[in-house]
């Protein structure tokens, strides 16, 4: 259940602080929609450029039954987060990376994207308009969901004559509720993406095909599903919503972004942080056999952040991995979250302060 507005005051906030916060049970945040006050909407019509965009009250949108997104799935989404720091600033984590990824996805789906500058500016405006919904420091983040969707009516298969760039937000906590590591099931039956397809962009259509596997795995008590490559069925690719890494010795390995997995921004960040502390990071095909022999396995994503994998089940094998205080995953998680929440100053330009 998503946390909802509460009737009594939170004992954790003084009345002055309460004024700057929406009425949310911050300690109970999950990864579930808590509607906020405003959203951003800009429109593009074939032959024109994107409209300036405006902040409007959050709510349902009206759309043609013949819209490109509804009929042919012409749509992309992004996910990024805003954080409130202990010293009262509101920051974004690498928003320009999402802006650039949307450019690439839009090209693949034949849509005109907003410029990277418009994207980042729109994200800032949306977060500032909803600043009451940015959780207190350490209680979660404001998840930002930009959409670029074909909203124009199109009956034959073609690019829609109108696109909508829309951004909405929701305060969120952890993606997976359990504080322990994930128990993954390897799906050897369904494939998530294939060479030349759209697995490498954040197309809306990449996500409903994972539902069948996910529902089956969850009903058997697993936390998530790991997909194999469609070409050989021998290499690991991606978890339903995030990227995967394995550790063996001093080498951290992750599947390459050659078109079938999402080029995750957290994936890129964690690779850099692991290199910074002396690990060799390899982006290469990783076989299922190597996965089963790894010392640690962990996954990364904006929603997921970084989560250790406790066990992987494949056929009749159930492998347990190192997790906990001494694990590399714990160290990298701390390095990342300390940067994101402003506990540690970041000299790589990853945090964008939008409060000043
Ligand atoms: C994200 O991590 O932002 C994602 O896009 C995952 C989402 C499908 C929940």
Automatic annotation (TrEMBL):
Domain of life: Eukaryota
Obligatory cofactor(s): pyridoxal 5'-phosphate
Catalytic activity: L-leucine + 2-oxoglutarate = 4-methyl-2-oxopentanoate + L-glutamate; L-valine + 2-oxoglutarate = 3-methyl-2-oxobutanoate + L-glutamate; L-isoleucine + 2-oxoglutarate = (S)-3-methyl-2-oxopentanoate + L-glutamate
GO molecular function: transaminase activity
Alphabetical keyword list: Amino-acid biosynthesis, Aminotransferase, Branched-chain amino acid biosynthesis, Pyridoxal phosphate, Transferase
Keyword Transcription regulation: no
Enzyme class, first EC level, given as a word: transferase
EC number from the UniProt entry: 2.6.1.42
InterPro entries in the cross-refs: Aminotrans_IV, Aminotrans_IV_CS, Aminotransferase-like, B_amino_transII, BCAT-like_C, BCAT-like_N, BCAT_family
PROSITE patterns: AA_TRANSFER_CLASS_4 (PS00770)
Entry keyword annotation includes Transferase: yes
PANTHER family: AMINO ACID AMINOTRANSFERASE, BRANCHED-CHAIN-AMINO-ACID AMINOTRANSFERASE 7-RELATED
Entry similarity comment: Belongs to the class-IV pyridoxal-phosphate-dependent aminotransferase family.
Protein name as annotated: Branched-chain-amino-acid aminotransferase
Phylogenetic lineage: Eukaryota, Viridiplantae, Streptophyta, Embryophyta, Tracheophyta
